[in-house]
Batch of 3 targets.
Target 1
Amino acid sequence: SKYSGLSKRLGSIQFLLDLALMCDVLFEISQLSLDLQKQDMSLLQADVLIRRTIRVIESLKTMNGNYFSEAVKAKEKMIFKTVVLSNNEKITCINKNQFITSVVNNLNMRLIPNEGEEKIILEDFQIFDKKLWPSEVEIRFGEKEIQRICDRFCINKVKTLKGMRIYIDDNDNNDITLIEELNDINILIKTLPCSTAECERGFSVMNNICTDLRSRLLINNISNSMFININGPPLQRWNPRDYVESWLTSHRDADDNKSRKVNTSTATEDPKYKLWQLL
C-alpha cells in the first residue's frame, strides 16, 4: 500500500526505543519549563532547578526512565499495546548516551557563565541561603557580598548589613522576608527575571486586546487595558460601585444640551438622490 513503508517504520522496535528515550527526556524538560514560567520564580531557584534537571537527565544513562523501561519490556515480548513489533535492521537506533550528553550540554549552556558579572551576582545572592553556610558563622559573615549587592543596585548598605546580622543571630529563621531590614534585598531577588515568560504573557495579552477589529486603540488605552488584564482583580472580586457613581455624575447624556447634536441630513440633500429615484 501507499504507506506501508511508514507503517513498518512506526512498528519497528528501533522506532519505539527512540521514541521512549525522547519521551523520558522531554518529560523532564517540560517540567522544568513549567517551573521556570511561574511568576514567583527567582533567579536562585531557577539555577537550582536547572542543575537538578541536568542531574536527573544524566541519570537516565544508567537508570532507564519509565517510557524506556516500558519499551524494553515491549522489545522482549515483541508487542507494544496491540501493535506487533518487528526488527528493522535498516533503522539505526539513537545512541542513548550520546543523545543524553548532547541534551545536558545544551542545558549547561543555559546556566549563568562561570565568569562575569552575572556569576558574581548569583554567588552574592546565595549568601542568604543558610544551607550553604559553614558550620560556624561569624557575625560579619557575608559583608563583602552584601556591599557588592548594595553598590550594584543602589540599596541602603547600613540598613542591609544590620538586617544581615539579625539574620545571622536568628538561628531559627531561614526566611529573609521576616526581617524588615532585608526587604529591599528580598524585593530585588524576586524582581530579577529568570526567563522571558512574563514578557511573552504581555505580548499575548496585547494581541488579545489589540485585534483587527480594535486596531485604532491608542497606546495609552492599550497599556491601561493590559495593566488591568494582568494585575487587576478577578471579576467576582471587583466592586464597580465607585466607577458607576463617577460615570453617572460626569457623563453626558444624549439629551444633554451640552452634547453635540447629530447632523441628521435628509435623503433629498444627497447628490445621488435623483439617481436613486430612477432605480
Target 2
Amino acid sequence: LNFLRVQKIVIGDFKFDNMMLAENLKIKAIDFGHAVFEKKQKRLFSDKDIKNGKNNHKKYLYIAPEIRNGQRCSSIADIYSFGYVSREYINDVIIKDGKVSDFFEHCLVPDPKIRISADVALIHPIFNTLYDFVFCFADIKNFEISDNDTKIKLHDRIIYYEHPEYSFELHCCCSKNKREFSKFKLNQNQKLLQRKTTNQEEAEQRAYKLLKFRAVVGNHVLPIQHLTFSYHNELKKLFLKLNIEQVKYKVVINTLKEKTTRKKIMIKILGISVLIIVIAECLLLSIIYRINNIKNK
C-alpha cells in the first residue's frame, strides 16, 4: 500500500480476496479493475446508487466513506479498507491490546484528512516487534567481513551491505549529519498513539527510536520500517552479524580491561614492595646510626 501511495494509485476496493502470497512470502496485489490514478478518478458508485443507499449496503462497508459517497479520494482510502478487513480477520482477544485497537482507530477514521497514511501506518508501534533485533551499533569497532556473496563493512557508524540482489546503507541511530528522508516526513507534534498507557508510551518511544535509523537504498533515504519484506530479512541477517561482532568486541574490551587491571595491580604491588624496601632500608640505616653513636659514646 505504501508503494501504491508513492505511485499515487488507489485500489478502491482493497480486500484480502485480491491479495496473493507468493512462494517467497511476497504479497502480490491482483484485480485492479477499480483502481485509478489520483489525478484520473472515476466513481465507483453513481448518484443513483448513492440516492438509493446502495453505497451503504453491508457488503460495501469495507470501502472508504469518501469512495462510497462519490467524493475524490487518495491512497488513504485503501488504508480504511485495509483496517476494516484486517479487523474482521483478527481475533477479538488480540484487539484488546491497546496498540492494536489504536492502530485500527487510526485506519478507520471517517475523515480522510486526518486518517493515517500508509507511510505513517508502517511506523505505528504495533509493528515494533518486527524490529526487536535492531540495536544501536555505535560502540562496535569498524570492521569488514565477507561471507559468500555478501560483504558487510562498518565505518564511522554506517554499515555498507552488499549482496547481488540487495545492497543498502544503514546509518546508526546516533550517526552525525543525518540525511533527510526522501519521501517521508512525520510532524513532530503528531502522536502515533492517541490513548496511551505506560507500556504504550514506551512502545511509542521505541517507534520514534527506530525512526532515527536511516536506510539508504539507491537514491532513496528511508526509515527502516519502510523496507520491503526481502530487505527486512537481509536486515535481520545483518544485525545477527553485528551481534556477533559486538560480542567479539566486548570480549576484546573485557580482555583488555582485565589485562589493564592486572597491570595496575602489579604496578601497585611493585610500588608497595619498593616502598617497603625503602622504609626497611631507612629503618636499618637508622638502627646502624644509633649503634654507631652508642659505640662512640
Target 3
Amino acid sequence: MFGDTANKLILDGKRSSNLSNIPIYQSDLVKSIVRETNDLNKDAEYLIEEQEQLQGTQDQENSKINQCQLFVTHLSMRRNKRCLLAYEKLRADKITEFCWLNIDPIETSTSSSSTNTNVNQSANSNNAVNPLTKNLNNYTTSLDLNNLNHFEQDFFKQYQDLIMEFKSSFEDIDLSGDLNPPTNIFIDVRVLKDGGEVTTEYGSFNLIKDSQFFVRKSDVERLIQQGYLEEII
C-alpha cells in the first residue's frame, strides 16, 4: 500500500530521535520512497489525461471516480515528500547539535573488531564527560561519520566551518561552553587519558591517567569537553 515505506522511515526517525548518536542513513528506504513517488507522479499524469478526455463526455460517474483517484494519488505523493523532509530535517538537527559540542567525530572501521571496541569506548567516554549534555536528555553526544551519507558529511563540515567563523568574532566568549551556571568554582576531576602538562593561573599539573586534581572549573572546562578529564560528582 502506498505510504507504508514512508511510515517505516518515520518510525526509524522517531526511534533515532531518542538516541545520543546518529544511526546509519536509511538509503534503501529513501530510494524506495523516491521510486514510489515517481511512479505515483506517472499515475497522476495518466489520470489527468484521462480526466481531460472524460470532460468531453457525459460520463459523470467515471469522471468522479477519476477525480477521487487523482486526489488520493496527490495526497500519497505529498505525504511521501513530507516524510522524506521530516527525516532529513531530524538528522540535520542532530548533526547541528553535535557540532556545538567541540567533540571530534569518530569513524568506525570494519576491518577488525578491536578497532570497533576502541572506538565504542572512546564514544562512551565522550558521552560520559561532556558537561553540556550530561544533564540533558535526547541530546546528540556522539557521531560516526560512516553513518552519514555524502551530503550529510558535507553539511557537517560546512556547518563546522560556519561555527568557527562565527566564534572568531567573539574570541573572549566561549559560545560552546556549559549553558548551566556552575555550582562550585573549584571541582574535583579525574584524568581519563594522558595528555601532558597543563598550565593554569594557579599552577601546573600533568595529565596522567587515573590521577585526580582539585582545580578551578573554568580552567579545565575545555579539557572536560575534549574527554581528557571527568568531573567527580
